[in-house]
Amino acid sequence: MMLELAAILEIANKILGVASEIFGLRDRFKSAKEERRKAISAYFLKLSETLSRAATSLEKGIYPHGDCQAMLTYSEMLSATIGDIIDPKLVSKWQQVLISSHRLEVLIQVKGDKEREDVIAKLRGSAGMFEAVAYSM
């Protein structure tokens, strides 16, 4: 299924928007007990790694095999992972955005160099924010 460039860029923008919002609230995770912080940190590292791996694949023109399913799985886990620390309504909103944006494979359709670089930059930015959240605990 071919998507228009605007729809593809919207996926990358949505992921970046959620990452940015979570990054802005990262200090709230510090109130959790150490074992819980470690679990939350591991979750955000996996999310970061998935986005980074997808960006690298796209950069090389390679289909990001498995990253879509990983992104969906991690998206579905968001509420269970942080819903008791961050307002559950906000987490549910983020979760729905990530679930609707999990199809990273459509990003391979971006043909123009500038557009591809923009998508890759947004994915790397999202990965970096999720990694920063993970290490800020």
Low-confidence stretches: none
CA-atom Rg in angstroms: 15 Å
Question: What is the number of helical segments per DSSP (H or I, 4+ residues)?
Answer: 5
- The coarse silhouette is elongated
Tell me the distance between the termini. 40 Å
Order of helices and strands: HHHHH
Indicate the mean pLDDT: 90
Could you describe the largest sheet, including whether it forms a barrel?
A: none
Helix- and strand-based class? mainly alpha
Q: What is the helical fraction, as a range of percent?
A: over 70%
Give a quick set of tags describing it.
137 residues; mainly alpha; 5 helices; 0% strand; elongated
What would your notes on this structure say?
- By secondary structure, the chain is mostly helical.
- It is elongated, with a radius of gyration of 15 Å.
- It has five helices and no strands.
- Helix content is 72%, strand content 0%.
